[in-house]
Amino acid sequence: MALKLVMNVLYPKASDLAAQVVIAATSELERAATYAIENNRKIREANEEVMAKKPDQQPNPSLPLSDVEKIALEHVKKPANLFMALCIRRPEIIKDLMTYSCKEGADVLVKAVRNNMPKLARAASKKYGSAKIALQVADLADTSETALLLSFLDNLAPATGTPPGQDLIDACIKVQEARLVDGQKDPRFIIPVVSGMKRTEVETRLPELVGAEDNVFRAALHRMSERLKRQAFSFREQAGDEPLIGMTLCEQLVYLHKLDFAAAKLRQKRYLQSISLCLENDEVYTDRVIMAALDHMSGKFLSGESLPLGYMRTVIMTCTKHESLHSWICNVLLPRLIEGQVYNEGRQWEGWMRCARMLEAGDGGVSSMEAIKQLPEEQYQTYRNKYPKK
């Protein structure tokens, strides 16, 4: 018996060594959290000073903003990364990672953890499976740790290559349904996997994304189209049994216009805002994307569908923002809408007349005059009564 005790002291079990390593790493993480909290005010003031000198700068959230933050980030990075390496072998201690990192004022530690989150998520996914580890970590995280949980889920979804699998999609939906906020679903939990969802499901979930805060809505739009960049200008038609995945930029604009906001209990103002947010981002929603979406909807109009409520509003905004589309609007779109008898739809007819008036003068060598002349006599007189010749 005595010999056994001596042997245990001289040659402790591997499990005991592992436990001691975790205890030591946890202690280091706790000290890092304390350091972050004690220096939080100094870091914040230094960052505010930097931002005051460069008010238009859009800082990279992964990088330190000031020299003070840079020093602090280096101080906490090593214990954070060490602890996260241990989390791969013992995922249950991810709870401690979130608890210490999410303490009030430990902002720089959170940044260090976020920066290393891709490595943790990829390794944990490979070892345990993305769906299984997603559910396990979600069970560990409380409400105050939601931000880190979201970061973990976001990094579980592959950034390139094949889209998120259905098992991970189902897991994220399960997490969302288990973490209601005042009885409402939080759309942030499905953003990591929206690029792998069937387009029909994305369409169904579009109202909850539209109803979210602007930054959440924009993030969702980005993710659902990130694997479809080559098809950005296309509205894909279903062919065969293979489901369409995600949403192209063109499809996003079409489905946003067609959204039944009243049925979704969204205000009309928010419905129109969601479209405006896309149009304002002209580096993504370029003139070609907008033209493709407007063209698709006008084609459906000729087939008997009504124009969506926000359609002519978008055409008018496009006239103002994209001079490159004036020729197409004057020579293709406005005549096509006449062919579809747009004058029988009161609100759309008002929009058509306003748009035609904007382009009638022919500034830039393009005029809507030829389209106006195609109006039936009665509608031409209505237009001229409202907008006499100059």
Molecular structure report:
The chain is an all-alpha fold. Among the domains are: 12-33 and 71-127, no CATH class; 309-390. Helices cover 65% and strands 0% of the residues. It has helices at 2-10, 14-38, 40-53, 67-89, 94-101, 107-128, 130-140, 146-156, 166-178, 199-210, 214-225, 249-257, 268-280, 287-302, 311-321, 326-339, 346-360, 369-373, 377-386. The longest helix is centred in the first third of the chain and has 25 residues, at 14-38. Residues 1-11 have low confidence and may be disordered.
Number of helices: 19
Largest sheet: none
Strand content: under 5%
Distance between the termini: 109 Å
H/E element order:
HHHHHHHHHHHHHHHHHHH
Low-confidence stretches: 1-11
Shape: elongated
Mean pLDDT: 93
> Which class of secondary structure composition applies to the elements?
mainly alpha
Count of β-strands:
0
The percent of residues in helical segments reads 55-70%
Cα-atom radius of gyration? 28 Å
